[in-house]
Amino acid sequence: MEGYNDVVRWLVCGATAGLSVDLSLYPIDTIKTRLQSEQGFLKAGGFKNVYRGMSSVAVGSAPGAAVFFTAYYAGKKVVTTDSPIGEALRASLAEIAACLIRVPTEVLKQRAQTATAATTLSGLVRQTYQTDGFRGFYRGYLTTVFREIPFSFIEFPIWEFLKRRWAAHKNRDKCKPFESAVCGSIAGSFSAAVTTPLDVAKTRVMLYQGPDRPSALKMLRQVYTQEGPAKLFAGAVPRTIWMGVGGYVFFFAFEFSQQLSLHLF
């Protein structure tokens, strides 16, 4: 029963964390997406309707984060070492699993955010299916994984390292939820800044409307040669802010709900 309770706890707490951060910081994510779009910030919507596409996030955010944390902590049964490499590998494998749910949500959300598609969830689903079929919902899956693995490879070892150091500094076994959240904010901000070019490539691939399916590397080369190296860091500021604040909300919600869940099951 203990193993079953752990899985339920990871699912519930992961879902709580994902929904908390995505819904509370959605406008910042919209601005970041529009800055990265090929059509330009103003044509993509500017500062108008910054909550457009939130319905897709409300549907997909919770299960995506739930799968991530379940895979991350269950991975400790396989990758038992607490070294940075072990933590990075567990986070990477968890991202691959979570992206199976996260990518369709991202596709629908970003097309709504840039006003290139219908803005209702049913309209987005219908238009995407009519244009590309079922595989259209996974446009950019490999590109997203290509972004998420380096991000998690950096973020989670830093998060775990900072938590251990702070707990040792306080002569405790573990951090309090708000302390873990600060560590997550620092780790998320740094990881977001250095992986922005991969995020730009992911956004462009998901928004691409042509018949072919450009790869992340092709998109990176295209942006670099046609728009200059600075464009690879488009949206870096809102992305770093989003991940910094979002990291705090995300990890606080996860750690706090974990503590609360110990009294429930």
UniProtKB/TrEMBL annotation:
<keyword id="KW-0999">Mitochondrion inner membrane</keyword>
<feature type="repeat" description="Solcar">
    <location>
        <begin position="175"/>
        <end position="260"/>
    </location>
</feature>
<keyword id="KW-0812">Transmembrane</keyword>
<feature type="repeat" description="Solcar">
    <location>
        <begin position="5"/>
        <end position="78"/>
    </location>
</feature>
<protein>
    <submittedName>
        <fullName>S-adenosylmethionine mitochondrial carrier protein</fullName>
    </submittedName>
</protein>
<dbReference type="GO" id="GO:0005743">
    <property type="term" value="C:mitochondrial inner membrane"/>
</dbReference>
<comment type="similarity">
    <text>Belongs to the mitochondrial carrier (TC 2.A.29) family.</text>
</comment>
<keyword id="KW-0677">Repeat</keyword>
<dbReference type="InterPro" id="IPR023395">
    <property type="entry name" value="MCP_dom_sf"/>
</dbReference>
<keyword id="KW-0472">Membrane</keyword>
<feature type="repeat" description="Solcar">
    <location>
        <begin position="82"/>
        <end position="165"/>
    </location>
</feature>
<keyword id="KW-0496">Mitochondrion</keyword>
<keyword id="KW-1133">Transmembrane helix</keyword>
<dbReference type="Pfam" id="PF00153">
    <property type="entry name" value="Mito_carr"/>
</dbReference>
<keyword id="KW-0813">Transport</keyword>
<dbReference type="InterPro" id="IPR018108">
    <property type="entry name" value="MCP_transmembrane"/>
</dbReference>
